From TrEMBL:
<dbReference type="Pfam" id="PF05721">
    <property type="entry name" value="PhyH"/>
</dbReference>
<keyword id="KW-0560">Oxidoreductase</keyword>
<dbReference type="InterPro" id="IPR008775">
    <property type="entry name" value="Phytyl_CoA_dOase-like"/>
</dbReference>
<protein>
    <submittedName>
        <fullName>Phytanoyl-CoA dioxygenase (PhyH)</fullName>
    </submittedName>
</protein>
<dbReference type="GO" id="GO:0005506">
    <property type="term" value="F:iron ion binding"/>
</dbReference>
<keyword id="KW-0223">Dioxygenase</keyword>
<dbReference type="GO" id="GO:0016706">
    <property type="term" value="F:2-oxoglutarate-dependent dioxygenase activity"/>
</dbReference>
Length: 265
């Protein structure tokens, strides 16, 4: 017998609001290790790039399509995220990509209003049956640029998107209308808590002008039935081998020891 990880009320909330928050999805030890590794991971830092926000700032991020033998892969393929995602989307899911948003204190840029499916539609995904899980690495507050969402806006369907700085943003005219009709929610999160959100949910974030960083780890998934009809920079359907939740600490500690050994050479 399979035990549901979400209550019927939580699934209904996701369908109605476009998102659901799970408090303390990861332990303090797990998320502290994730942040420690991310900030010391030379390979990730070399793969990090910036996107100007059109407001004078820039967002730093790194994106990875593959599930590696590291703490990022242990989280992205872990049962506690993947099983929940399958419950919400009602199908087998596969790893679409994962990314680390590195919104540093004082200088971290904004994200323009957008829908993830506004990007992914052009990758050959016919349906918006896709979603993301954002895990707070640092405490996310209004002051340091937490995620903002328009509650229920996913029900409008996909909007047209265009350039905003180096980013891609949703049609400003429709965004302005949506802001008048939908409730704006600031998704403040404690480290280790997570928000699961639909690919058509309008979301953004402000610049980080505070003294505190706001890193977030985002795991993105597509459904098996939504296998893209063409190749793109993100993968087509590949069965995802799920990992035990205990692997986050097991693999993470081994990775941290390797980083320390490499730094001493």
């Amino acid at each position: 017998m399979v035990t549901s990880l979400f209550s019927s009320e939580e699934i209904e909330r996701f369908q109605r609001d476009g998102f659901v928050v799970v408090e303390s999805l990861f332990s303090e030890e797990e998320v502290a290790l994730l942040g420690q590794i991310g900030r010391a991971d030379l390979a990730m830092q070399q793969a990090t790039f910036s996107r100007a926000d059109g407001e004078g700032g820039a967002v730093k991020l790194s994106v990875e399509n593959e599930v590696g033998e590291d703490i990022y892969g242990a989280i992205a393929a872990g049962h506690r995220v993947v099983d929940r995602m399958e419950e919400l989307l009602g199908d087998e899911v596969y790893h679409y990509h994962h990314k680390m948003i590195q919104k540093e204190a004082k200088v971290g840029g904004a994200w323009a209003w957008h829908q993830d499916y506004g990007y992914w539609y052009n990758n050959g995904c016919l349906f918006p049956d896709m979603a993301s899980c954002m895990i707070a690495v640092d405490r996310a507050t209004q002051e340091n640029g937490c995620l903002q969402v328009l509650k229920g806006s996913h029900l409008m369907g996909r909007m047209n998107h265009g350039k905003v700085g180096d980013q891609t943003g949703a049609d400003p005219e429709r965004v302005a209308a949506a802001c008048e009709r939908f409730e704006l929610v600031y998704c403040t999160l404690e480290p280790g808590s997570a928000i699961f959100f639909h690919s058509n949910l309008l979301h953004r974030s402000d610049q980080n002008k505070s003294d505190h960083p706001r890193w977030g780890f985002i795991c993105c998934y597509n459904t098996k039935h939504n296998d893209p009809y063409k190749e793109s920079r993100h993968p087509q359907y590949t069965p995802l081998t799920k990992r035990d939740d205990a692997d986050v600490l097991k693999i993470g500690h081994a990775q941290w020891e390797q980083i320390q050994a490499d730094s001493s050479l």
